[in-house]
Design a protein that fits this description.
The protein is an all-alpha fold. The chain is built from four helices and two strands. The protein has one domain: Four Helix Bundle (Hemerythrin (Met), subunit A), CATH 1.20.120.450.
């Protein structure tokens, strides 16, 4: 019987292989990091990726539509702000959903980052949350990551793509959730 174990193929260009340090065990990585600290890092990751995706959007992009039934980037952006408001309300113990009307692109971007900052501030208090951190992640945060990816894809379709990046080496830090982010470390086309 032939060997059915998976085989790793050799890289086309060995100089492009990312060499990572050997870690003694998973137990020692970020020892003591709490679920809420990981959530705050996830919010910072969301801010970094959203900032890159929203920055320098072309004129009229907020109204760009790929089909008659699809959401526009402006509609997705206002939904992102609604998600962050909702998540903050859940983290404060009083779940509230308030759908907003679309805004001009830059106003929507400002609103998103303001709502993201308020959510991060709630998590930063280190007060016990009324819900498990995993619930916050699986709802609003995972949804927001998906929507930022949708806007990035719509930018490409609209002819204004966002450059790819090795996000593993990006300078992302918990608490940095505003529109101003560190410059990319390693971008590619």
């Amino acid at each position: 019987m032939p060997d059915a174990s998976p085989r790793l193929r050799e890289p086309r260009n060995p100089s492009l292989v990312l060499r990572l340090p050997v870690m003694p065990s998973r137990k020692n990585i970020h020892e003591g990091e709490t679920a809420c600290e990981l959530l705050r890092h996830t919010l910072a990751t969301l801010a970094y990726r959203a900032g890159k995706t929203f920055r320098n959007a072309p004129a009229g992009f907020a109204e760009f539509r790929v089909s008659a039934t699809s959401r526009t980037p402006g509609q997705i952006l206002v939904h992102l702000g609604d998600l962050m408001d909702w998540a903050a309300s859940i983290a404060r113990g009083k779940q509230e959903w308030h759908p907003s009307a679309p805004l001009a692109w830059e106003d929507g971007v400002s609103r998103f980052f303001a709502a993201l900052g308020k959510f991060d501030q709630v998590l930063a208090t280190k007060q016990p949350l009324p819900v498990p951190c995993g619930k916050l992640f699986q709802g609003a945060i995972a949804d927001a990551l998906t929507h930022v990816g949708q806007i990035a894809m719509l930018r490409r379709i609209a002819g204004a793509p966002v450059r790819g990046e090795n996000y593993f080496v990006a300078d992302i830090a918990a608490g940095r959730v505003g529109a101003e982010q560190s410059a990319p470390v390693r971008e590619f086309d």
